[in-house]
Structure formats: C-alpha cells, structure tokens
Amino acid sequence: MPHLAEGIDRFRREVFPAKAGLFAHLATSHRPGTLFIGCSDARVVPELITQTDPGELFVVRTAGNLVPAHTPGGDAVGAAIEYAIAVLGVRDVIVCGHSACGAMTALAEGHDLTAARAVADWLRHADASLARARAAGGRDGVTGLVRANVVAQLANLATHPAVARALAEDAVRLHGWVFDIASGTVEELTGAQPAHAA
Q1: Rounded to whole angstroms, how far apart are CA atoms 170 and 172?
Q2: Contact, 36 vs 84, CB < 8 A?
Q3: Cα-flanking dihedrals φ and ψ of residue 63, to 5°?
Q4: What pLDDT, on a 0 to 100 scale, did the predictor assign at position 23?
Q5: Largest alpha-carbon pair distance within the chain?
Q6: Residue 139 — very low, low, confident or very high, per pLDDT cuts 50/70/90?
Q7: Structure confidence at residue 198 (pLDDT)
C-alpha cells in the first residue's frame, strides 16, 4: 500500500496542477462521450489505451467484459448502461475484450471452478460466446473465444431497453474491440454490431 500513497502524493504534486482547469470543470460537469465496457483485468486500462482525459470515458469493468442480457429488476451493470445512455447521452459504446483473458481462458480450457462458485455463475453470461466459438470450429482456442465473446456481449448489450431505443433512433453506435496486451494493438471487429445498429 505505501506505493499507492506515494502515487496519490505524486498525482497531487505533479499531475493535478497541470490539469487543475480540467478538474475544476469536471467538478460541475459530467458529459462523457463514450461508454467503455472492459474487463476487470489490471492489465487493461481504458484511459491509458485510449489516451483519454478524465471525464471522456464512462467505464464499466467486469470479469470477462461480460454484459448480462437485460432482465427485469436492477443490477449494477444494467444500471450503469442505462445511466450512460439515457442520462449522460453517450454516443458510442465499446465492448473491449483482450488477449490472455483469465475468464475466457477458464472457459476455453474447461477449468474447474467449483471452489469459485460466484465466478462460475458469472461466467454463465458467456454461454452464447462459447456457442459462437464452437460454431466457428473452436480451433482458435482462447483467442477465438475472446473475439466471439465481444460479439456476444454486444448482442446482450442491445437487449437493454435504453440501448435498443438509442439504436432505433440512431443515437448511439456500438463497437467491438480486442486489445492485445503484448503488442499494444487494438483491433476493431467488423460486423460485430447487432443487425439493427447503425
């Protein structure tokens, strides 16, 4: 923990002064243009990858960048999506998978998750991803599943009423990305949007 305290001190001394005007503006304004749904993996830092300033991205991070399909009742992911679309008015939504994803590796390799019941239950939101990867032959292993998962999560995203309305009104665009940790590259998956997306 000492390194975190040192980081905060360095932020206050070296970073914050150079961006004091931005933070003063952000203290009373919150208008991000993009919702970024990525993995909780510590190696995937949306603001670093996209080189964006504070206030530009509304970020949701989940294990495996999973987006549960809409169901009645509230959940944290659904609430964040609805807030970003209906209240903040974001114009772009990115679902970003990444290489060497632990969640996708566990699924692709059939890891025993009996000692991690909550993880196993959560990963059921990737059932369609597994089906897509298998339908494609499953020969690309984890890499193929990562890509299939991004496409499947975009489909789940479109089931949320706020997203469906925004898509119908051409008020939002959906994007599927895969970040490669080793090379630092980001691939945009073509044809990853639901059929009714712009």
Answers
A1: 6
A2: no
A3: -60, 125
A4: 96
A5: 54
A6: confident
A7: 34
Query: Residue 154 to residues 7, 15, 41, 94, 134: CA-CA distances in angstroms?
Result: 35, 35, 19, 9, 18
- What is the spatial distance between Cα 24 and Cα 5, in angstroms, rounded to a whole number? 23
CB atoms within 10 A of CB 35: 25
Q: Count how many Cα atoms sit within 13 Å of the Cα of residue 63 in the half-sphere of its side chain.
A: 15
Q: Helix (H, G, I), strand (E, B), or coil: what is residue 77? A: helix
Mean pLDDT of 115-139: 92
Task: Dump pLDDT digits (tens) for 14-47.
Answer: 999 999 999 999 999 999 999 999 999 999 999 9
CB-CB neighbours of 102 under 10 Å: 15
Indicate if the alpha-carbon torsion angle 127, 132, 82, 188 is positive or negative: positive
Angle separating helix axes 141-157 and 127-135, nearest 10 degrees: 130
Going by pLDDT thresholds of 50, 70 and 90, the confidence category of residue 190 is confident
